[in-house]
Amino acid sequence: MSEVVEARDPKVSPSYPPKSPPPQKKPVEAPRPQPATKPKSLTGVPPRLVVTSRRARVLAFRADQWAARKAAGEAALAVAEWDYPLLDEHDFLKAVHGLVQAAVAGGGKRVSVHLADQDAKVLVMVLNHLADEQDAVGQVPAEVAVLRTVEACGSHTDHDGHAWWALLNAQPRPKERLS
C-alpha cells in the first residue's frame, strides 16, 4: 500500500488583501452634536428674576404657619446690615409678615423672600413658587397696603409662581403733627 504524498510549498501570504469584517449594523455611540458657534435664541422663554447693581438677599422657607414670623425676623436682620436708620422697622416687619402670610395662603410647599434696595427704597417680594395659572393670585393684604412707608405694592403671576411685593421708603418723611 503505497501512499502518495504531495509536496507542499512553504506558507506564502496571499497576493490579494484579506477580507475585512462587515460594518456594524448599529453604531456603538450616537454621534455627538457639534457645538454651535452662536447660542440659540431664547425667544419664548421668560427671563428669570435678576437683580444687579444693588444689594439683594434671598431667604427661603417652608410654607407653614410659622413661615411669616421667621421670614420677618430674618428679613429685618438682613436689612439691618444695609444701614437704613430711618427705616420704620414696625412697617417693615408688618409688610414682610403680611406678604408671606398671603403667599402661604396661596399654596405651595415653599416660600422665598427677595429683598433688594436702591435709592433709599427697599423692595420686598415674596414668591410661593406655585405656577398654577388657573388660580388667580390674591391681592396684597390691606394691612400691608395702608402702611405709612409703603409707596407701592402689588401682586402678579409669572413663570416663577405667584408673587406679592411691596416697595418701602427707607427714609420716610417725618410724621405730620396736628396743630
Quick rundown:
The longest helix is centred in the middle third of the chain and has 17 residues, at 89-105. Strand 2 (110-118) and strand 3 form a beta hairpin.
Structure commentary:
- This protein has 179 residues and is an alpha+beta fold.
- It has 3 helices and 5 strands; from the N terminus they run βααββαββ.
- It has helices spanning 67-80, 89-105, 142-145, and strands at residues 56-62, 110-118, 121-127, 150-158, 161-169.
- The protein has a 5-stranded antiparallel sheet, with helices on one face.
- Strand 2 and strand 3 (121-127) form a beta hairpin.
- The longest helix is centred in the middle third of the chain and has 17 residues, at 89-105.
- It is rod-shaped.
- The N and C termini lie far apart (147 Å).
From the N-terminal CA to the C-terminal CA, the straight-line distance is 147 Å
What would you call the shape?
rod-shaped
Rg, Å, rounded: 35 Å
Approximately how much beta-strand content do the residues carry? Answer: 15-25%
Order of helices and strands: EHHEEHEE
Strand element count: 5
